[in-house]
Design brief:
This protein is mainly α. It has eight helices and no strands. α6 runs antiparallel to α7.
């Protein structure tokens, strides 16, 4: 997209071929991002649609559509996680066992226990800390994480170090229980 004002940009996004191009180009990445943050493919399918609906109805007034979509997807994911936590209770959020894996029963039990402990430890962190860690270990750079989460770029190293320390402490407590 070229340098246009907000009104012109909205008209360009609302134009079906342009919107369709954004949708086809970024859909899989945004869906994967949401699935990673929420831990749910089903939730990702719903939330990615919501992100693109927001792009269609209220596009950004700048040309950086992908970072904007990632930020919207992150916010939608955080809202979803908060709603899930409220529904299930703080200490009852656990990942479902995957029965489709072809591994031994012993390996499955150990892997599922580790996944539950990791997910449980992550869910006990604040949303900001959890999202920052997940994004960092997904390969995002400090600047990208800062833009998606709203944390100052200059504070990102400290924020991540503290989040990792909290995760380690929480995870070690989970393993001992």
């Amino acid at each position: 997209m070229s340098e246009k004002g907000p009104a012109q940009n909205r008209m360009t996004i609302g134009n079906n071929p342009v919107f369709r191009d954004y949708y086809e180009t970024h859909y899989r990445r945004i869906r994967g991002h949401i699935a990673y943050l929420t831990g749910s493919r089903e939730a990702a399918e719903d939330l990615v649609q919501e992100a693109f609906i927001r792009l269609f109805h209220s596009p950004p007034d700048h040309d950086r559509v992908l970072p904007w979509l990632l930020r919207v997807a992150t916010n939608l994911s955080l809202n979803h996680l908060r709603e899930e936590r409220t529904r299930r209770g703080r200490d009852r959020v656990m990942m479902e066992d995957e029965s489709d894996n072809v591994i031994t029963v012993e390996e499955s039990v150990i892997r599922n226990q580790e996944i539950r402990q990791t997910r449980k430890a992550l869910n006990r962190l604040s949303e900001r800390d959890r999202v920052c860690l997940l994004l960092k270990f997904s390969g995002y750079k400090y600047g990208e994480i800062a833009e998606m989460t709203g944390v100052e770029k200059t504070s990102m190293g400290t924020t991540l170090a503290r989040a990792q320390a909290k995760f380690r402490k929480t995870y070690n407590r989970e393993v001992r229980e």
